UniProtKB/TrEMBL annotation:
The gene is ilvN. This is Acetolactate synthase small subunit. It comes from Gymnodinialimonas phycosphaerae. Belongs to the acetolactate synthase small subunit family. Pathway: Amino-acid biosynthesis; L-valine biosynthesis; L-valine from pyruvate: step 1/4; Amino-acid biosynthesis; L-isoleucine biosynthesis; L-isoleucine from 2-oxobutanoate: step 1/4. One of its GO terms (biological process) is L-valine biosynthetic process.
Amino acid sequence: MALNIEQGSTSHSAYDLRSHLSEDIETHTLAILVENEPGVLARVIGLFAGRGYNIESLTVAEVDHNGHRSRITIVTSGTPQIINQIKMQLGRMVPVHEVSDMTVEGPFVARELSLIKVIAKGEKRVEALRIAEIFRANVVDSTLESFVFEMTGMPDKIDAFCELMRPLGEVKLARTGVAAIARGL
Protein backbone atom coordinates (compact mmCIF):
# COMPACT_ATOMS: atom_id res chain seq x y z
CA MET A 1 0.00 0.00 0.00
CA ALA A 2 1.47 3.34 -1.01
CA LEU A 3 1.02 6.51 0.99
CA ASN A 4 0.95 9.73 -0.99
CA ILE A 5 1.76 12.88 1.01
CA GLU A 6 1.67 16.25 -0.69
CA GLN A 7 4.72 18.45 -0.23
CA GLY A 8 4.18 21.49 1.95
CA SER A 9 1.11 20.01 3.62
CA THR A 10 1.17 20.61 7.37
CA SER A 11 -1.31 20.12 10.16
CA HIS A 12 -2.60 23.32 11.77
CA SER A 13 -5.13 21.85 14.13
CA ALA A 14 -5.49 23.60 17.47
CA TYR A 15 -5.69 20.11 18.97
CA ASP A 16 -2.03 19.54 18.17
CA LEU A 17 -0.04 22.48 19.49
CA ARG A 18 3.13 20.64 18.43
CA SER A 19 2.32 21.66 14.86
CA HIS A 20 3.29 25.20 15.91
CA LEU A 21 6.78 24.30 17.19
CA SER A 22 8.29 27.47 15.73
CA GLU A 23 6.03 29.57 17.99
CA ASP A 24 5.96 29.58 21.77
CA ILE A 25 2.88 28.44 23.64
CA GLU A 26 1.62 31.22 25.92
CA THR A 27 -0.94 31.22 28.72
CA HIS A 28 -3.42 34.12 28.68
CA THR A 29 -6.15 35.23 31.07
CA LEU A 30 -9.20 36.59 29.22
CA ALA A 31 -12.02 38.58 30.83
CA ILE A 32 -15.22 38.55 28.78
CA LEU A 33 -18.19 40.78 29.63
CA VAL A 34 -21.40 39.18 28.34
CA GLU A 35 -25.19 39.45 28.54
CA ASN A 36 -26.45 37.46 31.52
CA GLU A 37 -28.93 35.31 29.63
CA PRO A 38 -29.47 31.58 29.10
CA GLY A 39 -27.12 29.92 26.63
CA VAL A 40 -24.36 32.54 26.56
CA LEU A 41 -21.87 30.46 28.53
CA ALA A 42 -22.64 27.43 26.35
CA ARG A 43 -21.95 29.51 23.21
CA VAL A 44 -18.61 30.75 24.57
CA ILE A 45 -17.59 27.24 25.62
CA GLY A 46 -18.79 25.94 22.25
CA LEU A 47 -16.42 28.32 20.48
CA PHE A 48 -13.49 26.79 22.39
CA ALA A 49 -14.66 23.19 21.98
CA GLY A 50 -15.54 23.54 18.31
CA ARG A 51 -12.08 24.76 17.40
CA GLY A 52 -10.12 22.55 19.79
CA TYR A 53 -8.94 25.34 22.09
CA ASN A 54 -8.23 24.28 25.66
CA ILE A 55 -9.69 25.98 28.73
CA GLU A 56 -7.38 25.65 31.73
CA SER A 57 -9.64 27.59 34.09
CA LEU A 58 -13.16 29.01 33.86
CA THR A 59 -15.15 31.20 36.23
CA VAL A 60 -18.38 33.06 35.61
CA ALA A 61 -20.65 35.22 37.73
CA GLU A 62 -23.03 38.13 37.38
CA VAL A 63 -21.20 41.42 37.91
CA ASP A 64 -23.93 43.94 37.02
CA HIS A 65 -27.40 42.98 38.24
CA ASN A 66 -29.13 46.06 36.81
CA GLY A 67 -27.36 45.81 33.45
CA HIS A 68 -27.81 42.02 33.32
CA ARG A 69 -24.15 41.41 32.61
CA SER A 70 -21.85 38.58 33.65
CA ARG A 71 -18.10 38.27 33.53
CA ILE A 72 -16.44 35.12 32.26
CA THR A 73 -12.78 34.68 33.14
CA ILE A 74 -10.99 32.07 31.04
CA VAL A 75 -7.38 30.97 31.27
CA THR A 76 -6.28 29.39 28.00
CA SER A 77 -3.05 28.69 26.20
CA GLY A 78 -1.85 28.61 22.64
CA THR A 79 0.42 30.31 20.19
CA PRO A 80 0.06 34.08 19.76
CA GLN A 81 -1.87 33.37 16.53
CA ILE A 82 -4.34 31.08 18.33
CA ILE A 83 -4.82 33.56 21.20
CA ASN A 84 -5.58 36.32 18.67
CA GLN A 85 -8.06 34.06 16.88
CA ILE A 86 -9.82 33.32 20.17
CA LYS A 87 -10.10 37.03 21.01
CA MET A 88 -11.38 37.96 17.55
CA GLN A 89 -13.95 35.17 17.49
CA LEU A 90 -15.18 36.01 21.00
CA GLY A 91 -15.44 39.69 20.04
CA ARG A 92 -17.73 38.83 17.11
CA MET A 93 -20.24 36.96 19.26
CA VAL A 94 -23.51 38.90 19.71
CA PRO A 95 -23.92 38.55 23.51
CA VAL A 96 -20.27 39.60 24.10
CA HIS A 97 -19.78 43.26 25.07
CA GLU A 98 -16.05 43.30 25.76
CA VAL A 99 -13.05 40.99 25.55
CA SER A 100 -9.99 41.91 27.60
CA ASP A 101 -6.69 40.04 27.45
CA MET A 102 -5.48 40.67 30.98
CA THR A 103 -2.09 39.15 30.17
CA VAL A 104 -1.17 41.85 27.63
CA GLU A 105 -3.21 44.84 28.85
CA GLY A 106 -1.12 45.53 31.94
CA PRO A 107 -0.71 44.37 35.51
CA PHE A 108 -3.56 42.40 37.02
CA VAL A 109 -4.37 40.49 40.18
CA ALA A 110 -5.44 36.85 39.87
CA ARG A 111 -6.52 34.47 42.61
CA GLU A 112 -8.14 31.09 42.96
CA LEU A 113 -10.05 29.68 45.91
CA SER A 114 -9.64 26.03 46.81
CA LEU A 115 -10.87 23.61 49.43
CA ILE A 116 -8.37 20.85 50.12
CA LYS A 117 -9.30 17.81 52.20
CA VAL A 118 -6.34 15.92 53.66
CA ILE A 119 -7.07 12.53 55.17
CA ALA A 120 -4.24 11.78 57.63
CA LYS A 121 -3.62 10.24 61.05
CA GLY A 122 -1.14 10.67 63.90
CA GLU A 123 2.00 12.70 63.32
CA LYS A 124 1.00 13.30 59.72
CA ARG A 125 -1.92 15.43 60.99
CA VAL A 126 0.49 17.61 62.94
CA GLU A 127 2.72 17.98 59.88
CA ALA A 128 -0.32 18.90 57.75
CA LEU A 129 -1.14 21.72 60.19
CA ARG A 130 2.47 22.99 60.09
CA ILE A 131 2.50 23.11 56.30
CA ALA A 132 -0.93 24.79 56.27
CA GLU A 133 0.38 27.51 58.57
CA ILE A 134 3.33 28.19 56.25
CA PHE A 135 0.97 28.48 53.25
CA ARG A 136 -1.58 30.54 55.22
CA ALA A 137 -4.29 27.96 54.62
CA ASN A 138 -7.24 28.12 57.01
CA VAL A 139 -8.74 25.05 58.65
CA VAL A 140 -12.49 25.19 57.87
CA ASP A 141 -13.38 21.66 58.99
CA SER A 142 -11.74 19.01 61.14
CA THR A 143 -12.53 15.43 62.09
CA LEU A 144 -10.40 12.77 63.79
CA GLU A 145 -9.28 11.56 60.36
CA SER A 146 -9.20 14.67 58.18
CA PHE A 147 -8.82 18.40 57.76
CA VAL A 148 -10.41 20.64 55.16
CA PHE A 149 -8.21 23.62 54.36
CA GLU A 150 -9.30 26.78 52.57
CA MET A 151 -6.64 28.46 50.50
CA THR A 152 -6.67 31.49 48.23
CA GLY A 153 -3.79 32.29 45.92
CA MET A 154 -2.21 31.74 42.56
CA PRO A 155 -2.78 28.29 41.05
CA ASP A 156 0.93 27.46 41.42
CA LYS A 157 0.72 28.06 45.18
CA ILE A 158 -2.27 25.74 45.48
CA ASP A 159 -0.51 23.09 43.40
CA ALA A 160 2.61 23.33 45.61
CA PHE A 161 0.51 22.99 48.79
CA CYS A 162 -1.23 19.88 47.42
CA GLU A 163 2.09 18.29 46.43
CA LEU A 164 3.38 18.71 49.99
CA MET A 165 0.17 17.24 51.42
CA ARG A 166 0.06 14.10 49.23
CA PRO A 167 2.78 12.21 51.15
CA LEU A 168 0.82 12.85 54.37
CA GLY A 169 -2.41 11.21 53.20
CA GLU A 170 -5.15 11.17 50.61
CA VAL A 171 -5.86 14.62 49.14
CA LYS A 172 -9.24 15.62 47.69
CA LEU A 173 -9.55 18.97 45.99
CA ALA A 174 -12.23 21.46 44.90
CA ARG A 175 -11.14 24.59 43.01
CA THR A 176 -13.07 27.63 41.81
CA GLY A 177 -10.90 28.58 38.88
CA VAL A 178 -9.04 31.86 38.43
CA ALA A 179 -10.71 35.22 39.08
CA ALA A 180 -8.75 38.21 37.79
CA ILE A 181 -9.03 41.99 37.66
CA ALA A 182 -6.76 44.77 36.36
CA ARG A 183 -4.68 46.75 38.85
CA GLY A 184 -4.93 50.51 39.19
CA LEU A 185 -7.45 52.75 37.47
